[in-house]
């Protein structure tokens, strides 16, 4: 195992402009498409919040005018107030302040509704992204799934989805800020057009420079995606190899790898933080100069005091949304590679999506394979397999390691589609719908049992149609595990640990077998499913399975010669050649 850094952020290719804006546009398209009506409501609230903010600022002019001149000024608002009977400066000020407070209350209510709508939108988007990943995995063909790294999926579902949520949040924040900025800029334009135009031009130049730097930020983000996947892979490897590592005292090799990946990730994260801090610094200095220029130019061009004060307030208020847009843009492009990774994963799987039409159940009868071929890219697999398995027969499959036994079973149960040849059941040739229907009647027991971190009860119920407790105990008795479960601290409600880690190998296999029996399958597949159970108990169990009424068709792979004694038929597989 390499103790040096396993990933290198410099490996990420520099992004051209096209490669930055294309995924950004794709993200916006996906997000807007997802948001639908909810998005329009949120946008309406955003716009209303920005307009109310602008109106509040506008009201400051007559208020300040009343305070500065103490006479209520000669503005259009003052004339209107005069016309409705408010003749004194004080009564006008009270009326204006009342309107100001009322506006503040309405604005606060609108902004509250806006924030809730935006938060809802963001969290449902995360949920949607997660569901998309899981659906893509569920819909993919087995031959594609088998080559997927679990750490990649886990990383996408956790870290990368959270980063995408961040992107969505930054997109929303930036659009809120942009709406506010537009209203405030319009306000500034009405107050002092030349001054506002000059400031807007400066803001646009600064903004352009920020946006041109997004390619590098996306590259740093891509380094994070790469590093996160490596970190998850390392953690998974560590946890799955923990016993072997502890037994030989080699945990430190795992730790060294993990720490090295973490250190690289930290550096990647810091290089982004440095860029952000630098932009904040540039912005702070720039806005200091801008504020001084506004006052100076306003003074030189004889802008009235109330207007100048309001302008300074407007510009000061504009700096908040402006810095927010800049920071949100940086964060958005930093997190964009996570969205790209999610999209790439989904389109990779979609390219080999298993066509799963409504399942069609094949009629009862024999399984017949004619010239079946299934070859992996590596050359392994099976070729030209022809055989017949009578319904209800007990068939053993033998052969050396790597001969093609599991490949044959995968094709016979309809898990993989043969590259050529036909598979039929009860005389019906299985297409995609037939294979899906056929699998509904299959119970598959692999060597490692497949138990999850839950109670015995939930493990038995998985894949079964709500079995009652009596049926569960019957199944446990059938596999000789009833006494074991009764002895457990919480009986059938005892948690069996991660992958059944709190049980012995043989006990795990018994529980997996009990679950398969509960399913009452048409086809029971035992893929070295009892190799951890002692030979005597296995013989006993095989006798019980053979006596099942009604008896399912049984396919059993085993390396134990004595296990084959119970079988009606034995198929030999060697070098991909099937002799039935
Ligand atoms: N997903 C895969 N991609 C590429 N090659 C594979 C894949 N799965 C299996 N193979 C190769 O195909 C051949 C047959 O594998 P298979 O698992 O069917 O053998 P097996 O007889 O069940 O072996 P064992 O008794 O060791 O479980 C082997 O050479 C194996 O390396």
Automatic annotation (TrEMBL):
InterPro entries listed in its UniProt record: AAA+_ATPase, ABC1_TM_dom, ABC1_TM_sf, ABC_transporter-like_ATP-bd, ABC_transporter-like_CS, P-loop_NTPase, Type_1_exporter
Keywords in alphabetical order: ATP-binding, Membrane, Nucleotide-binding, Transmembrane, Transmembrane helix
Superkingdom per UniProt: Bacteria
TM helices/strands, residue ranges: 39-64, 84-110, 170-189, 195-213, 282-300
Chief localisation class: membrane
Location of the ABC transporter domain: 367-579
Mode of membrane association: Multi-pass membrane protein
Subcellular location field: Cell membrane
The ABC transmembrane type-1 domain, residue ranges: 40-332
PANTHER family documented for this protein: ATP-BINDING CASSETTE SUB-FAMILY B (PTHR24221), ATP-BINDING CASSETTE SUB-FAMILY B MEMBER 6 (PTHR24221:SF654)
Protein name as it appears in the record: ABC transporter permease
């Amino acid at each position: 195992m390499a103790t040096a850094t396993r990933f290198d952020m410099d490996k990420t290719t520099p992004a051209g402009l096209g490669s930055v804006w294309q995924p950004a546009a794709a993200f916006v398209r996906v997000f807007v498409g997802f948001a639908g009506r909810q998005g329009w409501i949120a946008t309406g609230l955003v716009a209303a919040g920005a307009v109310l903010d602008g109106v509040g600022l506008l009201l400051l002019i007559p208020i300040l005018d009343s305070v500065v001149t103490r006479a209520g000024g000669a503005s259009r608002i003052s004339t209107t107030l005069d016309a409705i009977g408010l003749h004194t400066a004080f009564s006008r000020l009270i009326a204006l302040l009342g309107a100001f407070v009322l506006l503040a209350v309405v604005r606060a209510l609108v902004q509250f509704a806006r924030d809730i709508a935006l938060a809802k939108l963001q969290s449902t988007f995360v949920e949607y992204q997660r569901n998309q990943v899981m659906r893509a995995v569920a819909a993919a063909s087995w031959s594609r799934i088998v080559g997927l790294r679990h750490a990649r999926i886990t990383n996408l579902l956790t870290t990368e989805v959270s980063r995408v949520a961040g992107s969505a949040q930054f997109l929303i924040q930036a659009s809120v800020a942009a709406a506010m900025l537009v209203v405030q800029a319009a306000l500034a334009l009405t107050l002092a057009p030349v001054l506002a135009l000059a400031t807007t031009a400066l803001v646009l130049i600064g903004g352009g420079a920020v946006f041109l730097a997004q390619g590098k930020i996306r590259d740093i983000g891509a380094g994070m995606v790469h590093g996160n996947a490596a970190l998850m892979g390392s953690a998974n490897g560590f946890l799955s190899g923990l016993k072997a590592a502890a037994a030989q005292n080699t945990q430190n090799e795992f730790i060294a790898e993990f720490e090295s990946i973490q250190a690289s990730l930290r550096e990647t994260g810091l290089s982004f933080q440095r860029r952000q801090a630098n932009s904040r610094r540039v912005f702070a200095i720039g806005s200091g100069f801008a504020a001084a220029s506004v006052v100076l130019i306003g003074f030189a061009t004889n802008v009235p005091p109330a207007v100048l004060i309001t302008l300074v307030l407007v510009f000061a208020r504009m700096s908040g949304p402006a810095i927010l847009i800049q920071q949100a843009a940086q964060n958005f492009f930093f997190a964009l590679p996570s969205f790209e990774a999610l999209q790439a994963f989904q389109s990779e799987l979609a390219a080999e999506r298993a066509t799963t039409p409504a399942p069609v159940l094949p009629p009862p009868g024999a399984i017949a394979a004619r010239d079946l071929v299934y070859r992996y890219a590596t050359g392994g697999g099976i070729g030209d397999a022809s055989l017949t398995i009578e319904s209800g027969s007990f068939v053993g499959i033998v052969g050396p390691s790597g001969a093609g036994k599991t490949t044959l079973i995968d094709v016979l149960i309809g898990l993989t589609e043969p590259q050529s040849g036909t598979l039929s059941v009860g005389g019906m040739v299985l297409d995609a719908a037939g294979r899906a229907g056929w699998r509904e009647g299959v119970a598959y027991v692999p060597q490692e049992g497949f138990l999850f971190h839950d109670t015995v009860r939930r493990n038995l119920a998985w894949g079964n149609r709500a079995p009652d407790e009596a049926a569960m105990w019957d199944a446990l008795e059938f596999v000789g595990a009833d006494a074991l479960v009764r002895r457990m601290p919480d009986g059938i409600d005892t948690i069996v640990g991660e992958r059944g880690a709190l049980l012995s190998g043989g006990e795990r296999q018994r529980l997996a077998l009990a679950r398969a029996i509960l399913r009452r399958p048409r086809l029971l597949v035992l893929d070295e499913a009892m190799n951890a159970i002692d030979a005597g108990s296995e013989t006993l169990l095989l006798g019980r399975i053979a006596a099942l009424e009604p008896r399912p068709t049984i396919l059993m792979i085993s390396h134990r010669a004595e296990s084959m004694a119970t079988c009606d038929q034995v198929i030999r597989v060697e070098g991909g050649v099937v002799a039935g």
